[in-house]
Design brief:
Elements: E1 10-11, E2 17-18, E3 22-24, H1 40-50, E4 56-63, H2 83-94, E5 99-105, E6 120-121, E7 139-140, H3 143-163, E8 167-172, H4 177-182, H5 197-215, E9 221-226, H6 237-250, E10 254-258, H7 277-280, H8 287-296, E11 301-304, H9 310-319, E12 324-327, H10 329-333, H11 337-341, H12 359-363, H13 367-380, H14 391-415
Parallel strand pairs: 3-4, 3-12, 4-5, 5-8, 6-7, 8-9, 9-10, 10-11, 11-12
Antiparallel strand pairs: 1-2
Helix pairs in contact: 1-2, 1-13, 2-3, 3-5, 5-6, 6-8, 13-14
This protein binds flavin mononucleotide.
Flavin mononucleotide binds near residues 173, 258, 267 and 305.
Length: about 425
Amino acid sequence: MEANLLNQSLRLPNGGVLRNRLAKAAMSEALATYGNRPTEALVELYRRWGSSGLGLIITGNVMIDRRALGEPGNVVIEDESDLPVLTRWAQAATAQGAALWAQLNHPGKQSPKGLNAVNLAPSAVPFRQDMAAFFETPREATTAEIQDIIERFGRAAAICKKAGFSGVQIHAAHGYLINQFLSPHHNRRDDAWGGTPEKRRRFVLDVYAEIRRQVGASFPVGIKLNSADFQRGGFTEEESLDTIRALADAGIDLIEVSGGTYEAPAMSGIMQETRKASTAAREAYFLGFAEKARGATQVPLMVTGGFRTAAGMNAALHSGALDVVGLARLLAIDPDAPASLLQGRDSAQHVRPISSGLKAIDRMGLMEIVWYTRQLRRIGKGKAPRPDESGLAAFLKSVIASGWGTFRTKRLRARA
Ligand SMILES: Cc1cc2nc3c(=O)[nH]c(=O)nc-3n(C[C@H](O)[C@H](O)[C@H](O)COP(=O)(O)O)c2cc1C
């Protein structure tokens, strides 16, 4: 049997070391309070993952502006008021040797109707027609608002560092604000922030530079980037490769490759059902792009999406196209999977398609998020996940909880 490459350590460009090649990719936990403060459930969930043997643990997306949530229950970091819980969260995840990076995000237009008073985006481009009932057309951000958001990314990163997180990851994928700036479909500006690929890249590069300015040279800063948006007129592979080169020149430590948006959810594999047999034979969705990215940069690459077996992960590492294997859904139904995988054994659990049985709901691509979030909530309460739970029941319970969460979030904000 070939060596299990998952066990090799990895040195990052700025000097940090990951103890092995297995990473937990971001999964939004929705476990904050309605006032968006971190909770003990998060501490418990990350204690569990922290003891599984993972080299790197990336948190679910953490928002940088209380006025710009992606969903009820997001953690928001804008000041030091939650430093004690953030510190406990960092300790729980890192106590046994894993690195913990906070994923920092701004949703831009990708936020359900009614949650935020205003949704900002590069341009006022409406959603796909069948989604317009759930997501409203955003307002174009002013230059002052753009500058404020950039500073907020930096401030949140500095607070994470102070709390004991080992690094941060910029969320530039999956259709959120940074991805919107990169996309010619969403970014129709003709000022300094749009109009050419270079100008569309300026926002992400400024966010990176501001974070680096606030955390210093040796604190790991990574990014999650789309290989492409899988949407007509969206961010292309070519622009993604150019963005990777620019980020590498700027000093980024780790680039995680993913793809898709809410309007075209490639990240969960839905778009890959029609993929070529040669690609289907390999587990991961974005390996072909990773090979191209490897040709463009020496910066460590992480690929997330589709990895299930120790053999599949090792084959991908052997190919040399990537350095870190990202896992999401498997770790929500089997938080101990890394212990087996690092010994070359597969998890006993299988990631299966989650369906509500109702086409209109499944097409939105949110079904999986809803179902897996419920599993994370169970682990956060100290319970075992329920891999057999029905999709429709989970969906209905979550719609009620999300409606209630939106109502409570808005009421709390009205009182503040
Ligand atoms: C419940 C859930 C929440 C997610 N939240 C995030 C998130 O906050 N940030 C992010 O970059 N990706 C998020 N993702 C996408 C995952 O990181 C990952 O890219 C995707 O699930 C594919 O990997 P997998 O096949 O190993 O699950 C989420 C996925 C799930 C299932």
